[in-house]
Specification:
The complex is a heterotrimer of chains A (244), B (240) and C (221).
Chain A lengths: L23 E2 L4 H8 L5 E10 L2 E11 L4 E5 L6 H9 L6 E6 L11 E3 L11 H11 L5 H7 L15 H10 L8 E5 L7 H16 L3 E5 L9 E5 L12
Parallel strand pairs in A: 4-8, 4-9, 6-7, 7-8
Antiparallel strand pairs in A: 1-9, 2-3, 2-5
Chain B lengths: L1 H4 L2 H33 L13 H28 L2 H33 L7 H20 L5 H33 L14 H42 L3
Helix pairs in contact in B: 2-7, 3-4, 3-6, 3-7, 4-5, 4-6, 4-7, 5-6
Chain C lengths: L1 H16 L1 H22 L3 H24 L4 H6 L1 H7 L4 H30 L6 H26 L6 H28 L5 H29 L2
Classes of the chains: A alpha/beta (244), B mainly alpha (240), C mainly alpha (221).
């Protein structure tokens, strides 16, 4: 029995970038666009490809962002919004392409604040204990401001097991106020939030951008974020059923 | 050169070329070695005919250890450079190594009965081989314990590297334990001075086992790569 | 240092709030030890011979039982993502978690061991060495166990997997721990064994947390 010969190596693993979508981004209007081209970008993503398991999630994604920007990622489920955010946060290794922050020689410090799907909340600890812990973890921040920003003042001594999903979401978003990170990566931040919570989040994002921070969020909801750059992610175009 | 192996096509071509030679060498070595050692080599003046078990026991014990080193090297390559081929080879080698270890344990027990009068003796070497067997089982199980096969591959790779570092420690501690508990019964399974009439068939058997290992490893690695390709194609067929 | 002390405090607080979990581990330790006289027979001399081994094996198994909760809760709710993306050293976070685990599992085991040693008729000379051996050995068990716990995060049958992965690595600790007690009982010098245990502890402190941190980073993909 002789093993057969298989010559096309790209069929072993995932096919590397071929002909897929480049992210589209919409300029507010042309003069501003011309102005933006000459400013230095604090984030440059170049031809980024994401492979998870044996699946190619997105390929040849490029985008640029600078201080004070907000980038909203849109796309169907499975388009790679969470994967992109995790790559930017450093949780997922880069398969191909590059992510460059500001000056490559200067490490981004503090690192981007990543707020994922799940709420890092333990049912048996109280709201105040969580805020204390995050404050210690991020070495600073004002707990009172964070609690007030999301209306959690009344709940400081409540065990988180008693909170509703929306309140837990607010608590995990409150952590953003305790970090001094200039880049925020938010994955579905509005999930389970009511309109008041969404309004609080929008205020928070606006304040952060005004202070020169960058916000990149993947969201299905309509959020009132002025001058946001919208990036639509689409899964790579595949020829279903054919095998080359 | 190591990075050359990372390319699946090149690996495929290399193994396709090697396969017939390994197969032929295996048939040759085992074809000559088995009759020579089991029938024509001299019987030991102390142990009689039962020394012939040594010709199977020693090569399988040696291969068990060698396979683990191969797995550890591939796992290190996989962890450091993320070579997917190294992952596949390590996982392919693991059941082979487990079988060698089981064979070594079984032949050790079979040899122990005529030699020491008991099927199992808590001798340092046998106990170390037993622990090695558990390390293999752990490696095999861990790789398949995850729903995401690549996660399993990474975990198993890390386990293999941790295990290879621990292997000398375990061997040393079991030696220490054995000498303190059984000072009077120090067994020499294969003495340092072995008669050349027994040495040559033994070496031939070791070579035969080595070529057998390479042959089966090539087969299993290619099967692993095909399985991976099939998975990729199925995902693409589903439009994912 | 403040973040790591906060991690330690949080884990300790969690263990205290879940006091039942710690008690279960200790109960398991006692029950396992009690099974041996029931299985082997209450002859005092036999029990005295097997006492060090039984107590050490039971301590091993009890530590194993508590290991799968070391990282699991943090992994499920995404706190490990938090640790990795914050500005802190994941290695020191792992050290803090191991310290919390040892304080809530290893230390009670050490404190319980003289009682169990009495039940198993351990000769009086062995008590101190048993406690000393466990004092040095249980942190090693926690550290090696942390590597195992990080490796099997997200696996099916995580508990059994940890056992299969970690028990072969525990064997040297078991051997040296039991030999040290046996040595004292037989009036031989026990210190080579204690020194080996200490060496294992020092190597474990240096090697295990980075390995566990590496495994955690691999997990969160």
């Amino acid at each position: 029995m002789t093993p057969g010969s298989l010559s096309r190596w790209h069929l072993y693993f995932v096919q590397l970038p071929s002909s897929t979508e480049v992210a589209q981004w919409s300029f507010p209007n042309l003069p501003v666009a011309a102005f933006m081209i000459h400013r230095t970008f604090s984030l440059i993503v170049d031809n980024l490809t994401c492979v998870r398991g044996d699946r190619e999630v997105f390929s040849r994604l490029s985008l640029k962002a600078q201080d004070g920007d907000a980038i909203l990622l849109y796309g169907p489920n499975g388009a790679g919004k969470s994967s992109l955010l995790r790559m930017l946060a450093g949780l997922l290794p880069v398969t191909a392409g590059s992510i460059r922050w500001q000056d490559p020689a200067i490490a981004l410090s503090p690192p981007p604040a990543y707020c994922g799907h799940r709420d890092p909340i333990k049912a048996w600890l109280t709201v105040g204990e969580h805020l204390d812990f995050w404050c210690a973890l991020h070495r600073g921040g004002r707990i009172d401001d964070a609690a007030e920003g999301f209306g959690l003042n009344r709940f400081l001594s409540v065990p988180c097991g008693l909170l509703s999903a929306g309140q837990k979401r607010r608590l995990s978003l409150a952590r953003l106020m305790l970090t001094s990170a200039s880049v925020w990566l938010l994955d579905e931040p509005t999930a389970s939030l009511d309109s008041e919570g969404i309004a609080q989040l929008e205020t928070l994002i606006a304040d952060h951008r005004a202070a020169g921070g960058l916000v990149i969020a993947a969201t299905h909801a309509e959020m009132a974020i002025p001058k946001a750059v919208k990036v639509k992610l689409r899964p790579p175009v595949l020829h279903a059923g054919t095998v080359e | 050169m190591i990075h050359g192996f990372a390319n699946p096509v090149r690996f495929q071509r290399l193994t396709n070329g090697l396969y017939p030679w390994c197969f032929a060498a295996m048939v040759l070595c085992l074809g000559i070695g088995l009759p020579w050692s089991l029938l024509f080599s001299p019987a030991d003046y102390q142990q009689g005919e039962s020394v012939r078990i040594m010709y199977v026991h020693v090569p399988s014990a040696w291969m068990a250890l060698f396979t683990y080193l191969v797995i550890a090297a591939c796992s290190a390559a996989s962890l450091i450079w993320r070579h997917a081929v190294a992952d596949i080879v390590a996982q392919a080698a693991s059941p082979i190594g487990a079988c060698f270890t089981a064979l070594a344990l079984a032949t050790g027990a079979l040899w122990g009965k005529p030699m020491w009068g008991a099927w199992w003796v808590w001798d340092a070497r046998l106990t170390s081989v037993l622990v090695l067997f558990f390390l293999y089982l752990g490696h095999i199980a861990l790789a398949r314990a995850f729903d995401d096969p690549q996660r399993g591959a990474r975990a198993a790779a890390l386990l293999a590297v941790v295990g290879v570092v621990n292997l000398p420690i375990i061997k040393f501690s079991v030696d220490w334990w054995s000498t303190l508990h059984q000072p009077a019964s120090i067994m020499k399974l294969s003495g340092p001075s072995i008669h050349s009439a027994m040495l040559w068939p033994l070496l031939l058997m070791i070579l035969g086992f080595m070529f057998y290992f390479l042959t089966v490893l090539i087969l299993r690695s290619q099967a692993g790569m095909l399985a991976r390709r099939q998975r990729v194609l199925r995902l693409r067929q589903l439009g994912l | 240092m403040i973040p790591y002390v906060a991690v330690l405090r949080r884990d300790l607080r969690s263990s205290i709030r879940h006091g039942a979990d710690t008690v279960i581990v200790l109960a398991f330790f006692v029950v396992t030890t009690v099974l041996f006289p029931l299985g082997v027979g209450p002859v005092a001399k036999t029990l005295a011979t097997i006492a060090p081994g039984v107590i050490w094996v039971a301590a091993l198994l009890a530590t194993l039982l508590s290991l799968d909760r070391l990282f699991a809760a943090d992994y499920e709710d995404g706190t490990i993502d938090l640790f990795v993306t914050s500005d802190n050293s994941l290695i020191l976070v792992v050290v803090a978690k191991c310290l919390a685990h040892w304080l809530t599992t290893g230390l009670p085991l050490i404190l319980l061991s003289p009682i169990l040693a009495t039940m198993l008729n351990l000769p009086a000379s062995g008590y101190l060495m048993l406690a000393l051996g466990l004092l040095i050995g249980t942190p090693v068990l926690t550290l090696i166990g942390a590597v195992g716990a990080a490796l099997v995060l997200g696996a099916r049958r995580g508990g059994a997997m940890i056992a299969v992965v970690v028990l072969p690595l525990y064997i040297p600790v078991l051997i040296f721990g039991v030999l040290s007690v046996d040595a004292v009982i037989n009036a031989i010098n026990p210190f080579p064994n204690i020194l080996m245990l200490t060496a294992a502890l020092l190597v474990g402190i240096v090697v295990a947390p980075p390995t566990a941190a590496f495994a955690l980073r691999a997990v969160i993909h």
